[in-house]
Amino acid sequence: QVQLAESGGGLVQAGGSLRLSCAASGRTFSRSVMGWFRQAPGKEREFVAGISWSGGSTSYADSVKGRFTISRDNAKNTVYLQMNSLKPEDTALYYCSADYRYDGLAHRSDYWGQGTQVTVSS
Fold first, then answer.
1. Which residues touch 88 (CB under 8 Å, ≥6 apart)?
2. Which residues pair with 86 in a beta bridge?
3. Separation between Cα atoms, residue 80 and residue 6, nearest integer Å
4. What is the pLDDT of residues 67-100, one digit of tens each?
5. Cα–Cα distance measured from residue 82 to residue 94, given in angstroms and rounded to the nearest whole number
6. What pLDDT does residue 87 have?
7. Which of 8, 42, 16, 10 has the alpha carbon at shortest distance from 122?
8. Could you tell me which of 75, 90, 109, 121 has the fewest CB atoms within 10 Å of its CB?
9. How far apart are the C-alpha atoms of 44 and 103, rounded to whole Å?
């Protein structure tokens, strides 16, 4: 079992930045592939970014590529999402996930946090 707790969400103006954090506990974090997803009101949850257990490999949704950066600190059992040049369409509930994978059809994860709200005003 893995427990995940997100923090760092808030209200920001368009063009601004936020850094989300996700603290993991309950299992060996350093061997977990981690991901960030988001869900806007009335929409399905969508993949945002993923990172390998070592941090050496990352992937991003096209909508955030070049603006968001995922990273991790295995010594702190924490994964981060640095979000720059935020747009109103980035407004969503952001979820941290563990055991993330892409199977060729869909982005999937086995463990989820409760989410942290990000609101970008225009």
1. 14, 120, 121, 122
2. none
3. 9
4. 999 999 999 999 999 999 999 999 999 999 999 9
5. 12
6. 98
7. 16
8. 75
9. 18
